[in-house]
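Summary of Year 1 activities. Much of the first year was spent building the evaluation harness for sequence design. The harness presents a backbone, in tokenized form, and records the residue chosen at every position. We chose the following record to illustrate the format because it has been used consistently in internal testing since the harness was completed.
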């Protein structure tokens, strides 16, 4: 993971930056899925971690080897987003970069979904499931997210993204088709 490239959203009066980031991220997810790539990680250099106003910012950074990034860009996955993004080409990672895990965080946020699952698994009625799982069981996150449709299941959901604290050690590993990993690090600078 010695190179990176960066995509910056161009401000648009018709679309909020969150809408554009959702579209850009969805295109990246499809490209990584189609490429079957687990060697490209992502980060959001402009991430805002204020619990009252979390956001991913207007930049998406892709991390990998020069060959992996070149292979991704050869797919021409930015079709439809070129007017909304500026691409800063592949460059070596600065030697002074720290490293951090950028990972997906999931919570059991929907009591309705938990009730349906419980009723199906235990063979109980919906009323019994409602008694077992109250509305206050919903967990909430104050993390930034993208709204995305899964390439494999077709399900639309919020994908919450956490940038763990930076460290000095690089940890190698595989990345998901979202460019995220629970353990592998990406350069942070």
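For this record, the design step produced the sequence shown next.
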């Amino acid at each position: 993971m010695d190179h990176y490239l960066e995509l910056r959203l161009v401000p648009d009066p018709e679309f909020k930056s969150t809408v554009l980031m959702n579209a850009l991220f969805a295109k990246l997810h499809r490209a990584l899925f189609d490429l079957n790539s687990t060697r490209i990680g992502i980060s959001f250099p402009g991430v805002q971690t204020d619990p009252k106003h979390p956001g991913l910012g207007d930049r998406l950074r892709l991390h990998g080897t020069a060959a992996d990034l070149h292979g991704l860009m050869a797919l021409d996955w930015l079709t439809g987003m070129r007017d909304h993004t500026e691409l800063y080409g592949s460059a070596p990672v600065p030697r002074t970069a720290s490293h951090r895990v950028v990972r997906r965080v999931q919570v059991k946020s929907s009591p309705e979904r938990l009730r349906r699952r419980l009723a199906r698994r235990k063979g109980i009625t919906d009323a019994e499931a409602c008694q077992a799982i109250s509305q206050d069981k919903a967990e909430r996150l104050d993390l930034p997210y993208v709204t995305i449709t899964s390439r494999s299941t077709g399900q639309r959901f919020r994908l919450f993204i956490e940038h763990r604290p930076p460290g000095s050690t690089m940890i190698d590993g595989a990345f998901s088709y979202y460019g995220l990993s629970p353990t592998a690090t990406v350069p942070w600078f």
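The chain has one domain: 3-106+140-188. Quantitative recovery figures across the full test set are reported in Table 2.
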